[in-house]
Write a structure and sequence with these properties.
- By secondary structure, this protein is mostly helical.
- It has one domain (26-146).
- It is 83% helix and 0% strand.
- Helix 2 (26-55) packs antiparallel against helix 3 (63-88), helix 2 packs antiparallel against helix 5 and helix 3 runs antiparallel to helix 4.
- The radius of gyration is 26 Å and the shape is elongated.
- The termini are far apart.
Length: 148
């Protein structure tokens, strides 16, 4: 009987000592939390940006100025996120980097168009009015996609 108990104890000890480690190190957990925090911050920021865009009256006199102001503010936020992603290094997933880069690319394209509109004459703006409003609406739809 004593031999059986010792054999079972020894077998159990050998199995438990040779089992793969499933616990993450403290650093790995901190890295995952840091990425989740950054993802939450980005998602919240995009939702806020979308909400701000939804409040802009496309028919209002200050439409172009309000639109430009919101884009400028969001670009500053994107710049900060870019620095945070760079600082986090490998602790940020490829998906987060790709989403950030896609948002940045769309925002940069829009900024180029807005710069062209900003340099336009009054006549050109009148001519491009429908195009600007269409771009704005398409951009709002695109921003909704960023949240998914």
């Amino acid at each position: 009987m004593l031999f059986t108990v010792i054999a079972i104890f020894t077998t159990g000890l050998m199995v438990s000592c040779n089992s793969p480690q499933r616990n993450q190190t403290g650093t790995e957990v901190e890295d995952e939390i840091e990425e989740l925090d950054l993802n939450d911050e980005i998602n919240d920021g995009v939702a806020e940006f979308r909400s701000e865009l939804d409040e802009i009256d496309v028919e209002g006199e200050e439409f172009e100025n309000e639109f430009q102001e919101e884009v400028n503010d969001f670009q500053q936020t994107m710049d900060r996120w870019g620095r945070e992603i760079d600082q986090a290094g490998d602790n940020v997933s490829a998906e987060t980097r790709e989403a950030y880069n896609n948002m940045r690319q769309e925002l940069d394209q829009l900024d180029s168009k807005m710069e062209r509109w900003g340099n336009a004459t009054e006549e050109e703006l009148d001519e491009w009015g429908a195009e600007i409003k269409e771009e704005f609406n398409e951009f709002k739809v695109s921003v909704r996609g960023w949240e998914e």
